[in-house]
Amino acid sequence: MRWTGRPCLRTATAVTVAALLGLGGALGAPAVRASEPGEDRLTDLVNPFIGSEREGNTFPGAAVPFGMVQFSPDTGHNTGYDYSDDRVRGFSLVHLSGVGCRLGGDLPVLPTTGEVTLTDHAKYAARFDHATEKASPGYYRVGLRSGTGGDASVIDAELTATGRTGVQRYTFPATDKANVLLNAGQALHRTVSTKVEILDDRTVRTAITGSGFCQATRPYTVHTLTRFDRPFTTSGTWRGDTVTAGSTRSAGPGRGGAYVRFDTTKDRTVEATTALSYVDARGAAVNLRSEGGRSFDGVRDGARRAWEDRLDDVRVQGGDPTLRRTFYSSLYRSFLAPNLGNDADGRYTGWDRKVHRAKGFTYYQNWSLWDTYRTQAQLLALLAPRESRDMALSVLTVGEEGGWLPKWGYGTVETNIMTGDPVTPFLTNAYQQGLLEGHEERAYRALRRNADGVPPADSPAVGREANAEYVAGGFVPTIKGRPHAKPGDSDYDHGASATLEYALSDAMLAQMARDLGHEADAARYAARAQNYRRVFDPSTGFFRARDASGAFTGVADPARSTGFHEGTSWQYQWLVPQDLPGMIGLIGGRKAANDRLDAFFAYERLLKDPGRTAREVWVNGPYAYYNAATYNPQNEPDLIAPYTYLSTGQPWKTTDVVHAALTLFTDTPTGMTGNDDLGTMSAWHVLSSIGIFPVQPGSDTWGLSTPVFERTDLVLDRRFHPLGRLTVTAPGTSDTARYIRSVRGDGAALDRTYLTTGALRGIRELAFTVGAEPSGWGTAADAAPPALK
Partners of 220 in the beta sheet? Predict the structure, then answer.
């Protein structure tokens, strides 16, 4: 068929689309009952605007737990939305909570009025005021002012979502020129090419090929299908700056898109559903057929119920309303990723660029592993183990189909962002939590290959890029100016921290190897886990980068050290969770370690004013990673650091530092500490508030600190937690009464500062007794988490 103009309603194309979608003439369906006023709704405690200012990089738009679609406004910020902005460029389909570089933003859609003459969304962006904004889990609303001067008019825009669709409702003024612009050619990532097709007078299809996240990556394609609830009166497309009324097709590089127009002089409301697929146009149609067909109100209520069900697995008592709001907002963000990767028919695009079908599991994508292996993976294993199992199986599938396990995967491609070997603790955590039952040897084979080798030159992955030098000499050399063989970060740029990360991963893999009976491998990896000692400089008492000859390189001052990724030697000194006793010995024993920790956390000043210390001493800007000798609660290398006091005989100081860091989470747009990094910081907040934290990520060890709530009830999956629940109590806990006096598990005294996963699963109640002064609890020599062997 030759595309020459807008097809009429009864063309063959229109009939084919309607039959394909199975939707008939409209998307309407009876609305599902909303909650009655006064009902206790945890979703009312969630503020999606937290972290949307000062580079928290969260998004306020609509999504369901782990959904493929995150339907949210873009205001011109690098990663989507910034609360400081006052213009909306469009509502796009893909956003990841807290990423540090531009990513997603596919198909920004914007309602306007009047003639369509501009094709750059920075120029046609609509003004808005925060007074008209409202956001809650699964729902977003804003009033847009379209046009200028006396021609300006207010359009009410509402968004909601299912797992694979974004649903929009626009209430226009009375006009015969109510437009919806579908901009396929502009996104947050670099758009390579687009294809836009107006299929009939209700339906628009696009294919968007994009690339990039921090650095260039292989291109990937997303497919969309948008179905309106009523016919549009006219339409057109654009390519570059040229708008062509009546055109039904636009394809090629550069800006491209479509507009559709409605007469809203009588019926002012327009609804539409957009389905997303990473497979093909058929996949978008399948997703629209499967999840479309409901009214906006029905979808919104369904999204709210999905979030209520998810949030209701954690019930807290005590604390003021602000404390509860920040907690549930962090819990909400912890469930935003990873994301559905397969269509409703099970098909997905693998990392081999071929189409596969998920059988026996749901395929997930988007793997910020350097971040999430430290906190979010453990929280999801506890609260969402079925999904966590499928996520782990998805990572294994990526390794099998793509040729190598991922490091930082977005959609269908590897970005190679960050350093080290984060996939190992991610998967060994899944193993330790019992999520890989029936797949243990499969996972071990993949991890062994990753730990002992380097991806081939034709693989897009870098894996353990410096493994040859590390295995041979025990450290990753820092080589300045070395050309990057592949897009992304290079371990050779950050040899000191890469060495620490490799050694941590080796320790976790050694545990798995020993459990599975691979004794020789276990001994070999356990020995390599001690390689952190190879980058320790006795003359400074700190870790330090080595060059290719083995000589220490860079300045000796640990606050100005080189070879550490997003941090300094001060901030990486405690990233030895596999052997803190050994690390403490290197720097002179417990007293020397405590003195250094006190200086690192500005502990004496913290005791006098914890909130101010956190903001004025620790935090120096969202990306201030270097030239610092103090704790950085905004970045991943320091997430475990406050719990080091559990290993130095002063566990009360862990509570002091953790509770000071928790003050950085507030119920405001600036209330996020650093980038959220797909739920990493949010999960830290949740776990630290409950009082259990994964102090040896990749193992089964949970450190204990004082809960901030008097009671927390966790509903757990009986398949993985036979008792089905866990209650954590701390009567009287407060800013002043924050020190642990004793801990009991179902009445039995617990004198150690940690629990294993097995022990955690065997108790119904973890009871803390707290007081206003430090006690002797947890100070015995054998109370600390032991070194991994």
Answer: 210
